Amino acid sequence: MKTILLMIISFLATEAFGQTPEAPGLDNNAMLNKQESVYLNDLLKEQRKTFDFTDKKIAFVTGNTGNKLLTKSDFFNTYVKPYTDKGSRPQVSFIHLTKEDKEKTNGYDALVLVWVKLFTNKQKRNIIAQLEAGKK
Known about the structure:
Elements: H1 2-17, H2 34-43, H3 45-48, E1 58-62, E2 68-70, H4 72-85, E3 92-96, H5 99-104, E4 110-114, H6 121-132
Parallel strand pairs: 1-4
Antiparallel strand pairs: 1-2, 3-4
């Protein structure tokens, strides 16, 4: 009986300290989980005004001119985590898509740009076209 009780306690303790299924960047689902939306809401609080990342479908973009789509896991694990682990903030911005853009992109609410130096309207149209074609 003591052995079974010890096994149950060990299992519960392991689950409590393991990585939660809500941790940022665990999957490539374009819909943000709770921790991802909380992180982006905090990181972009100055820029987003009333926009809330909760339950939003987001495309991640990088490259000097914003020409490359990223997976969500690449965004968090390659472009965000190394900086937050050092106590600094990555260079991130976002663009809230219009209703028309959202329809064209099959429901994406916004673009999150990481380490993008120059993002023009032409580049935005190119990214929207890639999302429309399903290149994610």
